[in-house]
Amino acid sequence: MLHFIILITCFTSLATAKRPHIIFILADDLGFNDVGFHGSGQIPTPNIDALAYSGLILNNYYVNPICTPSRSALMTGKYPIHTGMQHGVLYGAEPSGLPLCEKLLPQYLQELGYVNHIVGKWHLGSWKKVYTPLYRGFVSHLGYWTGHQDYYDHTAMEAGSWGLDMRKNMSVAYELHGEYSTDIFTKESVRLIKNHDPSSPLFLYLAHVAVHSGNPYEPLRAPDEEIAGFGFIENYERRKFAAMLSKLDESVGQVVKALGDKGMLENSIIVFSTDNGGAAAGFNLNAASNYPLRGVKNTYWEGGVKGAGLIWSPLIQKPFRVSRQMMHIADWLPTLLEAAGADTTNLTHIDGLSIWKALSENSESPREEILHNIDDILGISSITVNNWKLIQGTTYKGAWDNWYGPSGRWYQYNISSVENGPVGVQLKKINKFVDGKVIKTLRAEATIQCGDGPKIHCNPLKTPCFYNILKDPCELKSVAKEYPLVLKELQVRIQQFNATAVPPIKKPVDPKGDPKNWNRVYTNFGDFENPNLIVL
Ligand SMILES: *[C@@H]1O[C@H](CO)[C@@H](O)[C@H](O)[C@H]1NC(C)=O
Ligand SMILES: *[C@@H]1O[C@H](CO)[C@@H](O)[C@H](O)[C@H]1NC(C)=O
Ligand SMILES: *[C@@H]1O[C@H](CO)[C@@H](O)[C@H](O)[C@H]1NC(C)=O
Ligand SMILES: *[C@@H]1O[C@H](CO)[C@@H](O)[C@H](O)[C@H]1NC(C)=O
């Protein structure tokens, strides 16, 4: 017994001496049903799927319904109501940002010796340079500051303005014009991994533009040859979406290969997550799928908040599972810090809980409830407590409260492409891959089946809608009438949260920030006294 204890102690000190590399890949607007491991075979995602099966498929995992709030939760470990980020997204010309008093994930990691890089999207404020990534814990940034960009010209059109939004650190990256965004971000990530000095741990935050729509003049862009490969998808929008997603999956393959080539994979934690639910059926001019879940991005239905996500790491003691541990995107901060060997006992001022032990050992999650958000400007609030979910109010006057396809379940799923794809090959090299039989079982288990029986319609603009989300993951039958007391409890819980909320930081856009004043570029306009002359 004594022997045993000594062994454990030695192992622990060794483990803390060599902290794991953390690669966090955030997809944008990816739907629950866009990954192959949730049951659709329409768009192959063999690299993402390979990580999922040989790590943990997070099937009780929630994100915020929209970009900026979700990313703020990831970076701070706090619910958006506690940072003022609860209402909508930030615009490039908006004189506002994630409050500077907040300590961000890379800043915590920096204290543990991590070298932090961000590649891709920021979206947490840029009107003054102090709000941008290099001033908030990252040592490099190749990417953009606003919510989206065109995949080739890298401009963003939003809130009545239009400008270039691509940076290499603080410099405007004019020279990247014409190169496909996903390729740019992949190349930079691979370069960072190749050049990384493995004596320090790496934190790579790869926040892709994919699969967000670009600008209205051509929202869904991918290389022609990639689109041509999806001719079997009749719906042209979905076909182009498939090509965008396929490039994202290819990126995951290249990043994992780079980690393998560098010998870093065995001491890495890789997270893949969406930031919010998919923009389906033409929402945001996009073609994602959350089937069979209800709603889309920026709704509080499961389709808006139940996130496609996975974690992969050799440090996970019980991998190859569909995880039912309840988790929220705010939990990544303490979870990753604990996995990195940090002392997390002082992290009591945040909402996130460390799920690391529960995930790794398949024990009970410390999380029992998730506040999906309270947005008093939109008049909407929602919470899940254990199996119960309450929704009060809705967005878009209810126009996006339905169920959207495609299911994609009728397509043949190619297990061999998962086994033999770039990620499969890397994982086999280090003996961390599962066989085809296990893949089949896990995939079936991760595929959501709606309950049956009649729908009981509920309009959350008129009355609270209330679901047993375990039995009714598709939100078909409101049981508000059957369980008035539990419903009341959840309403009280929302009020308790509401009493701790801070006002939204959201501000109207400042005409001074319009790119037309700044050589057609989105800038940190708040740092300059007078707008430049309009350059045409
Ligand atoms: C950003 O700056 C860092 C530090 O000077 C440098 O190593 C890195 O290459 C720069 N990144 C880009 C994309 O220019
Ligand atoms: C945690 O907080 C206590 C009390 O403020 C402090 O003494 C201790 O150093 C802190 N620990 C860490 C790891 O920050
Ligand atoms: C499945 O993927 C493999 C590549 O690993 C390919 O060779 C094979 O043709 C695919 N099978 C089908 C039925 O598409
Ligand atoms: C939250 O509190 C504010 C201020 O008291 C109030 O106006 C708002 O209606 C409350 N929201 C909810 C969902 O209870």
Automatic annotation (TrEMBL):
Residues 1-17 form the signal peptide. Keywords: Calcium, Glycoprotein, Hydrolase, Metal-binding, Signal. Residues 20-342 form the Sulfatase N-terminal domain. InterPro entries: Alkaline_phosphatase_core_sf, ARSB, Sulfatase_CS, Sulfatase_N. Its cofactor is Ca(2+). It holds the Pfam family Sulfatase. One of its GO terms (molecular function) is sulfuric ester hydrolase activity. Belongs to the sulfatase family. PANTHER family: ARYLSULFATASE (PTHR10342), RE14504P (PTHR10342:SF273). This is Sulfatase N-terminal domain-containing protein. It comes from Hypothenemus hampei (Coffee berry borer). The lineage of its organism: Eukaryota, Metazoa, Ecdysozoa, Arthropoda, Hexapoda.
